[in-house]
TrEMBL record:
This is Uncharacterized protein. The chain crosses the membrane at residues 21-40, 52-72, 78-97. The lineage of its organism: Bacteria, Pseudomonadati, Pseudomonadota, Alphaproteobacteria, Sphingomonadales. The keyword Transmembrane helix applies. Keywords: Membrane, Transmembrane, Transmembrane helix.
Amino acid sequence: MHWLDIAAAGWLPYRFAPLTFNAYWTGLAFADLLAALLLWHRRPAIRWTGALLTLAIMISDVAINSYVRLYIAELPLFALTLQSAFLGFVILTIRHLRPE
């Protein structure tokens, strides 16, 4: 989604938000891609790094999106609910990727 937003509105497309949040969400275009690539790697230690990066991304994204929804702008509740559910999935399954 972040790549689509950048393609549609240019660099730092979230103009309704403060620059720090705008930069964070734009940076997720790269961080999400890196996490996905690491999760697909064959080496368990690299997959674990991808899992930890995914966890960090989801915790920070849900926290920031919740803050923005409460205090700055009306973000879609459905999207935040899906993100929160995915965070729960990551938390519940991350232990399966931990290298032995």
